[in-house]
Amino acid sequence: MNSNRTVRHARTPSRRCASLLLRACIAAQLLPLAACHGPFSDERFGEVRTPKERLRRVEAMDVQAMAAQEQDQTPPLPTEADEAAEILDLTLEECRAAALEGNLSLQAALFSPTIAATTITEEEARFEAVFSARAALSSSEYQTSSSLTSSEADVFDAGLAVQIPLRTGGTVSVDFPFSRTDRNLAFNTLNPSYANDLSVSISHNLLRGAGLRANTYGIRIAEYQRQEGEAQTKLEVIRILAEVDRLYWLLYAVRRELEVRQVQYELAVAQLERAERLVAAEQAPVVEILRAESGVADRLEDIIITHNRMRARQRQLKRMINQPDLPMAGRAMLIPVTEPNPVALNLDLDTLIDVALGERMEMLQLELQIAQDASTIDFEKNRRLPLLAVEYSYGLNAVDDSFGDTFNTIRETHYGSWRIGVRGEVPIGNQAAESRVHRAILRRLQRLATKSDREAAITEEVLTAADNLGASWQRLLASRQRVLVAARTLAAEQRQFDLGLRTSTDVLDAQARLADAQSSEITAITAYQVSQTDLAYATGMILGQAQIRWEPADAQ
After folding, report:
1. pLDDT band per the 50, 70, 90 thresholds, residue 556
2. Which domains does the chain have, with CATH numbers?
3. Which residues contact 139 (CB under 8 A, 6 or more apart)?
4. How many CB atoms lie within 10 A of CB 510?
């Protein structure tokens, strides 16, 4: 028989089963591709499936069907319906504290610093050691033409490894592979044979990617972004508190205006009673009663409109402070008890501008971004350098007829090897790296120009807020004088009416002018308070003596 004859071994049952299993898996993957709807058309792939009717049909609203009862054609005064409501006195400080605790927008903003902090830990984790393990069992058959070559081999291969990144730009690796090999070869000295290796290697960059600054760039940028996130959150805190102040004073104004409208209603009712008495005494024509009744109806309309505005302001403030015991649909009446204290202020504009440039979070954000640009320029310059790395490895190996003997051989270090080398890479032209450096420099210059523009914008905002504050004070003084004059005019008109020299229309007009003057005074007082809030916001601070301290949301 010819010794070089090719030998073909029959497949074992286990290999035949493995082949059939592989074919079945391939068929299972390819079968859905032949369907009309694709492999992911099954409903199990969608966790939430909204009915098409809900997405594509717009329902009609029947307002009359949703009404609880028919509206009375002659409704009572809105203030009479509020007498049964819960009255809650609120100071401005209580509103601020409630907003810091419950405002939904602020609660969402408080997560931003915590989220940004996770980016820092993610970047730091790049230098964590990585442990890996592997294991594989393989069996193979070959057609051979020589008895010196094995036709069957069963191999078990496994290994353990640890890779340690260095912050200076290198990597230390420890690898411990071991294997067992069984071949049908008569000339093998060891069959089965056991192999064991232990190797330690280090690779370190010398130019590109070398040094602490280049390798900690990501951590540095993440830290800048965390601080930027906190600055943005602080800006949101200031915005929320300023909005609470504005809403508080707007609610104060509309409640005061409602009081004015109620007084004007009472005066109109009193005027109607006087007209009825004069007509009954035949000292005035009947038309005076009609004029007075028209005035009463006008004042009632003013009360209804103002009351509706008050409820809207209450809902806005309730939404802003977001307290569980103060739902927006609830009947609780919020009464602002903090009284305004308008005083004349002589502002030092230069000091205000300096404070604003130091306190505004927009300026801090730009400064942090400029610092990021500086780090990016250094990083891109490092990436522009050629790649030069030194590599060194040392290993011990052993082959024996048992794993125990291979460990003994490794321990006694009978067989070892080492290798040292240098690896380099120089881009021809290096245009991409040059473009990145140039782009980083241009971005920094752009940011510096933006900083100058932002300084000018903040200066403008501070000066405008200061002018508005001064104008609000002058408007307040003028409105107070207008109230005094309107009150004296109304008293004179009422005396003239009692003497029959004026009509009800004249008295009602005088009452309306007094009401407008009182409303203007309330508006001026409110505008002065809001102007102070706006000035504080323009300088990056809050109004008042108490400081505010906030904390990021808990990561847990």
Report:
1. low
2. 78-83+89-118+220-369+442-538 (1.20.1600.10)
3. 15, 152, 153, 154, 155
4. 23
